[in-house]
Fold this sequence. Notes:
7 strands, 2 domains
Amino acid sequence: MITSKKARKQRKYLYNAPLHKKRKWIASHLEENLLLKYDRRSIPVIKGDTVKVMRGNFKGHEDKISHVNVKKQIVEIEGLTMIKADGKKIAKPIHPSNVLIIKLNLTDSWRRGILERGLSEEAKKEIEREAKEQIREQEIAKKKAEEDAKKEEERIKAEESEEKKETEPETKATEQPSAEPEIQEEKPIEEIKTEPAIEPEEKKTKKMPAKKTVPKKKKEAEP
């Protein structure tokens, strides 16, 4: 408990408080019908609770809590976003005191035990029945999400295969046929033997050397 009346000490205590205490402080008021049903004015919020925004620019918005930040003591509600200076969209943080709980998430057994304290047997049975219905709804939603994810994967694979088929003929058309060397027909061996040997032109035009003539000896004159 905060015993000091000084604002700076109160802020310091809230900032440096341990997480198990901060978790209890993230609480919101219950709607009137829930207040009478569970005999509680407020309860700590958890992921999955349906709430209504009571103050601020988003006053009147009703949706489920998507995230609870214990350290900063804020909650994020589905459908509430804000735009940063760089154009990015982020979830709008809201303090739990500015929301009203319309429907409780009863899938957590720990929470059901807290709510059932001091209630009659009929109220406890009703809480358990509502919890079973919510669990069944969550299972159906989970299966549907998985089926949608599989269909999306199949659609993406089909589109990729179609793109590959379209690009394959284009690549084949652009490829040029490789120039194959001409194969010379080999002549049979018999034809090669029978063909006369052709002399080169140089040999035909070359003249044979002239033979040397030996001069005959003159006959000696008789005396």
